[in-house]
Design brief:
The complex is a heterodimer of chains A (388) and B (140). With 388 residues, chain A is α+β, with helices and mostly antiparallel strands. Chain A has a domain of 210 residues. Helices cover 17% and strands 31% of the residues of chain A. In chain A, strands 3, 4, 7, 10, 16, 17, 18, 19 and 20 form a nine-stranded antiparallel sheet that branches. In chain A, strands 23-22-11-14-25-24 form a six-stranded mixed sheet. In chain A, a hairpin with a 3-residue loop joins strand 19 and strand 20. Chain A is globular. Chain B is α+β, with helices and mostly antiparallel strands and 140 residues long. Chain B folds into two domains: 74 residues, ACT domain (Alpha-Beta Plaits, 2-Layer Sandwich); 57 residues, Alpha-Beta Plaits, CATH 3.30.70. In chain B, 22% of the residues lie in helices and 32% in strands. Chain B contains four helices and eight strands. Chain B has a four-stranded antiparallel sheet with strand order 2-3-1-4. Chain B has a two-stranded antiparallel sheet with strand order 5-8. In chain B, strands 6-7 form a two-stranded antiparallel ribbon. In chain B, helix 1 packs antiparallel against helix 2. Chain B is globular, with a radius of gyration of 16 Å. The chains are: A alpha+beta (388), B alpha+beta (140). Chains A and B meet through strand 3, strand 13, strand 19, strand 25 and helix 7 of A and loops of B.
Chain lengths: 388, 140
């Protein structure tokens, strides 16, 4: 497979408004009708998108020095505890942290009305947040308590930093037990009552670049409505997962660590989530442009829902092994058959929002507002068939 | 046949009168009670599906109004915040009537208020709290 384009060449086309950009959904048909070789010559960038709960998200915030200064060791934002074990007025707020007075699952299933993800949404919406900090007092940081109402504008620094986003594929969750269970995959009715899944499938970023050929430190992305970056592989990144012949993993595999300026983000793409009986989270929008460097990338980005599979897994701890394998085309059809029983499928990842993100990203690139970032350090991967 | 899901509100003065009995006997309507509640100040609320001929249906509605019952369609009391709904589909796991369902292949979540039985299961299942219920708030 000969090389067709470099990042620099594609960026030159973007600057000149001449880049050909299509969404991952459109690329399925383009490669089908024209073939990968022709598609690779014609298409410069394929845009992807995903909008779903991404628990491993949060933000580093600095709230500015007080007078006299405080070493804030315990911090709350709208009564949601943040981690203060970083320097003086730095903190990390995690998306799944519930408010300090949340009743949790004391009455099961808990509602988890407000947590870290909601604080992030409120900040991004420009709402006022009550910040409270306690310090133990030192010679250099004598202040022991501090309270203030702040907005995102008032904060000197607020950077979203998510250790694990954009899971490359995820389980389809079912419940074989006799009672309903409330999981991070939603409510699962007993006796295989429903099958919940959470992936944008053919639109999902990492499923369009299964071996992470174009993903790494410095890849510029759509993050929460702003431009952000991939900074590292995410926690639990597992490139050695079982794969289909075409390269797409059959189980959860790669993950991404993402960063972006919270101040540039929009509440449409950063929404606090309450997952019944499980906890708080963040619904986050991410989109990644995949440069079509060569024929292989054209082929990868032409993957469609019928070519992507995942494992149906029991979340009641009754059956440890996956029950069966199912394609995203089947999942998106509305029902699947598991062990002879037809069960309704329930998406947790918004396909229509994923598509909207892919369209926005396409628009940014076409207008020349968004240049591709050439990765400076690639993600850990595995060798791909036929490539030395 | 005419069929509709309605929210009936009974002011405290009439909450102990056999209104539904008369509705069924005199107006020849079939009914299916979906939800019934009496609030602390004695007002009553009933969500029910009424079925009958168009003529009987209108007669029934007139009877209810004359009896002092406030009648509203279910959709007036349960609605979706279209700005907040992010079209994920989580609600469709619990909606028992299919009022909330995914339109394919667009994968958009539609809320058909006429099918809603006001069970409220979607309210806490929706991760972004886009479903808003107001019909079971007591009459002011």
């Amino acid at each position: 497979m000969g090389k067709y384009k470099t990042y620099a060449e594609i960026n030159e086309k973007i600057r000149n408004g001449k880049a050909v950009v299509v969404t991952a959904e459109d690329m399925v048909g383009i490669v089908k009708s024209k073939g990968a070789a022709k598609a690779a010559k014609e298409v410069d960038v394929v845009t992807t998108g995903t909008f779903a709960p991404m628990c491993s998200s949060g933000a580093f915030i600095n709230f500015g020095h007080t007078s006299p200064p405080i070493k804030a060791s315990k911090v709350w934002l709208n009564n949601v505890p943040a981690y203060g074990g970083v320097a003086a007025v730095d903190l990390y707020l995690g998306a799944t942290e519930p408010a300090a007075d949340d009743p949790l699952n004391k009455v099961h299933p808990g509602a988890f009305e407000y947590g870290g993800g909601h604080v992030l949404e409120d900040l991004v919406s420009g709402k006022q947040i009550h910040l409270r900090a306690e310090g133990y007092g030192t010679d250099c940081y004598p202040k022991r308590a501090f309270e203030k109402d702040v907005t995102l504008k008032d904060l000197p620094y607020a950077v979203m930093c998510n250790p694990r986003n954009c899971y490359q594929n995820y389980n389809c969750a079912v419940n074989v037990s006799k009672k309903i269970i409330y999981t991070y995959m939603g409510a699962l009715k007993p006796n295989l009552g429903n099958a919940n899944y959470c992936s944008a499938g053919q639109l999902s970023p990492m499923l369009n670049d299964p071996y992470y050929r174009t993903l790494g430190l410095g890849t510029r992305i759509f993050l929460g409505g702003a431009q952000g970056f991939i900074t590292w592989h995410g926690s639990q990144h597992r490139p050695d997962a079982a794969r289909l012949a075409a390269g797409t993993p059959r189980t959860p595999a790669g993950t991404l660590m993402l960063m972006g300026d919270l101040k540039q983000m929009s509440p449409r793409w950063v929404m606090g989530a309450s997952i019944l009986g499980y906890g708080c989270s963040l619904m986050l929008g991410v989109g990644i442009p995949i440069p079509i460097l060569d024929e292989e990338m054209a082929l990868f980005t032409s993957v469609s829902d019928k070519d992507i599979v995942t494992q149906v897994k029991d979340y009641s701890f009754t059956r440890p092994e996956p029950i069966c394998e199912i394609s995203y085309a089947e999942l998106r059809s509305g029902s699947i058959t598991v062990e002879g029983k037809e069960i309704p499928t329930v998406p947790l990842s918004s396909y229509s929002r994923a598509k909207e993100i892919a369209e926005i990203l396409k628009d940014w690139i076409q207008k020349g507002d968004f240049l591709l970032g050439e990765p400076q350090n690639m993600l850990p991967t595995v060798p791909r068939a036929g490539v030395k | 046949m005419h069929s509709r899901r309605l929210v009936l509100r009974f002011p405290r003065e009439i909450v102990d009168k056999p209104i539904i009995t008369s509705l069924v006997r005199d107006c020849n309507l079939d009914f299916n009670i979906l939800k019934a509640q009496i609030f602390p100040r004695k007002e009553g609320m009933l969500v029910l599906e009424l079925r009958g001929t168009s003529e009987d249906f209108d007669k029934g509605l007139r009877y209810l109004e004359e009896a002092g019952v406030q009648v509203e369609p279910v959709g007036q009391g349960i609605r979706r915040d279209e700005q907040r709904c992010c079209q994920c589909g989580a609600c469709t796991a619990v909606c028992p009537t299919g009022a909330l369902h995914v339109v394919r292949p667009q994968m958009e979540v539609e809320f058909e208020t006429e099918l809603c039985s006001a069970c409220e299961l979607c309210v806490k299942t929706c991760p972004v709290r886009a479903m808003i219920v107001t019909f079971d708030k007591a009459i002011a």
